[in-house]
Design brief:
Elements (H helix, E strand, L loop, with lengths): L28 H5 L9 E3 L5 E14 L2 E8 L7 E4 L2 E9 L8 E3 L20 E2 L2 E4 L4 E6 L6 H7 L2 E6 L17 E11 L5 E2 L4 H6 L5 E4 L6 E4 L3 E8 L6 E5 L5 E6 L2 E9 L2 E3 L4 E7 L5 E7 L2 H5 L2 H9 L6 E8 L26 E11 L15 E3 L11 E3 L4 E8 L4 E5 L3 E7 L14 E4 L2 E7 L10 E5 L2 H5 L3 E6 L1
Parallel strand pairs: 1-4, 2-5, 4-10, 11-15, 14-22, 23-26, 25-32
Antiparallel strand pairs: 2-3, 5-7, 5-8, 6-9, 9-10, 11-12, 11-13, 15-20, 16-19, 16-21, 17-18, 17-20, 21-22, 23-24, 26-30, 27-29, 27-31, 28-30, 31-32
Bound molecules: copper (II) ion.
The site of copper (II) ion (CU) has 6 residues, from loops.
Length: 493
């Protein structure tokens, strides 16, 4: 069945843009054959050595397609290697060769506050940080990125981010594709803006501060206009949204299903066939796609719901953006030389079903994600586009709440005006309800980041400690909002 091309009202105004192209039920193989092949990030496998080293660098990056930029990365000029971690103690070393402070937050890795890599673990220029990471969690896809308050948006945009795979080495027994770079692919999705002469640009203008910065060009693993070679088999895509602000609504161009196998914290009990996957900044999802049925395929995205429905400014932004209507995220072409080992979607995955409902709720809390209007329309001290949670902008010396180690709390998180991806450090949570309904498939399982469009109820499990000197953060993962103060911090003890 052909996928319905779904257009927002305003998108009709950008006809002549790319969307008509995606009505095609097949992707032209000849058109893809001239493109450069997508490269996977280098894999830094720590499962034998139990250690890894990262160092921040800056450099000039050629993204392909005539696009270049002055960028930063870990161990390279843009982004960083994918770290493969196993359970047990892992010795990390992060060296900062940049002229500004950076950090390395292990987003989705459940470790104590002192080694979480948040704003309190800044690494000064020339400095080195050597945390020991006690890895103890189910297999999952996670990531790392700089997290300096006020400089996270520009740091991640420059390239200070990389992927993480937590593995228990048992994916073959699960019947899952597990050959990295062949049938187990890591795809880092980002959007960027480029000047007329192809240089990467960033803007902290009013619209970007309000809505978050969105780009006009798609990058996958730091590459523009590439094609991903896949075997004619079942392939696993580890999808990471490392954009500053863009929310993806992903689908295969021909309506073939994606089989969702894992969300942020790891495997679901069984695969769930879905047609659309919503992935907001900071979130990860693993899907299986069957590439045996056709030689080519295209992962596309519908417009960002924040840009399309976020009022007049979002609509204007849509009109000037080439990513305003349905757009290509990543193209695939089968390659006979690649050997895929998996030809069927497994029935079961063995992911533990979080059932926090059986546990006693120690405390109930409410969080309101607040946006100050530029003109001070909201009053209450949130002038000039300041962002806040429960009316309070982030303050480095304020502990906003205290939780007890080993307890479960019910957090109700609400948002108005825009949808905000809400991330909590150092915990895994279960989405209890989403706008009064059961959570959508991609919000099931263990989560650490979730898009809040109206009101979500979360059951949050606190089982990692964080002292007053190294509290955990909770914040909006639209990085411009986070930098502007939509963040709080908590201790667990
Ligand atoms: Cu936000």
């Amino acid at each position: 069945m052909k996928r319905r091309v779904f257009l927002l009202g305003s998108a009709a105004l950008v006809a002549g843009g790319g969307y008509v192209w995606f009505r095609q039920s097949s992707v032209d193989a000849a058109a893809l054959s001239g493109r450069p092949r997508l490269k996977m990030p280098a894999l830094l496998d720590t499962t034998k050595s139990g250690r890894f080293g990262l160092s921040t660098n800056t450099g000039q990056t050629d993204f392909g397609g005539g696009r270049t930029g002055t960028t930063a990365g870990y161990n390279q000029s843009y982004l960083g290697p994918v770290l493969k971690l196993r359970s047990g103690s892992v010795q990390a070393s992060v060296e900062n060769r940049l002229k500004m402070p950076v950090s390395s937050h292990w987003h989705g890795i459940l470790v104590p506050g002192e080694v979480d890599g948040g704003p309190h673990q800044a690494i000064e220029p020339g400095g080195q940080w050597q945390p020991e990471l006690p890895i103890d969690q189910p297999p999952c896809t996670a990531w790392y990125h700089t997290h300096i308050h006020g400089a996270t948006a520009t740091g991640v945009y420059a390239g200070l981010a990389g992927g993480i795979v937590v593995s228990d080495g048992r994916d073959q027994a699960r019947g899952l594709p597990s050959t990295y770079g062949v049938d187990d692919l890591f795809l880092i999705l980002q959007d960027k803006r480029f000047s007329a002469d192809g240089r990467m640009v960033y803007s902290g203008d009013m619209m970007s501060r309000m809505h978050g910065f969105t780009g006009d060009t798609m990058l996958v693993n730091g590459q523009v206009g590439s094609v991903t070679a896949v075997p004619k088999s079942i392939v696993r895509l580890r999808l990471l949204n490392a954009s500053n602000a863009r929310i993806f609504r992903l689908a295969l161009h021909d309506g073939r299903p994606m089989h969702l196998i894992a969300t942020d914290g790891g495997y679901l009990p069984a695969p769930a066939a879905i047609e659309e996957l919503r992935l907001s900044p900071g979130e990860r999802a693993e899907v299986l796609v069957d590439f045996s049925t056709a030689e080519t395929a295209m992962l596309v995205s519908k417009p960002d719901p924040n840009a399309g429905m976020g009022g007049m400014m979002g609509r204007m932004q849509n009109l000037i953006s080439r990513l305003g209507s349905d757009f290509e995220v990543v193209a695939f072409a089968t390659d006979e030389r690649l050997e895929g080992k998996i030809s069927a979607i497994p029935d079961q995955l063995g992911g533990a079903i979080p059932d926090l409902r059986k546990l006693q709720v120690a405390k109930q809390r409410h969080f309101s994600l607040d946006m100050g209007m530029g003109g001070g329309m909201m009053g209450g001290g949130m002038m000039g586009g300041e962002m806040a949670i429960n009316g309070k902008a982030f303050a480095e010396r304020t502990i906003n709440l205290r939780a007890n180690l080993g307890t479960v709390e019910k957090w109700t998180v609400s948002a108005s005006m825009l949808a905000h991806p809400f991330h909590i450090h150092g915990v895994a949570f279960e989405v209890l309800s989403e706008n009064g309904n059961p959570p959508r498939p991609e919000n099931r399982g263990w989560k650490d980041t979730v898009l809040v469009n109206q009101e979500l109820e979360l059951l949050v499990r606190f089982n990692r400690p964080a002292p007053d000197t190294a509290p955990f953060m909770y914040h909006c993962h639209i990085l411009e909002h986070e930098d502007a103060g939509m963040m709080g911090q908590f201790v667990v003890g």
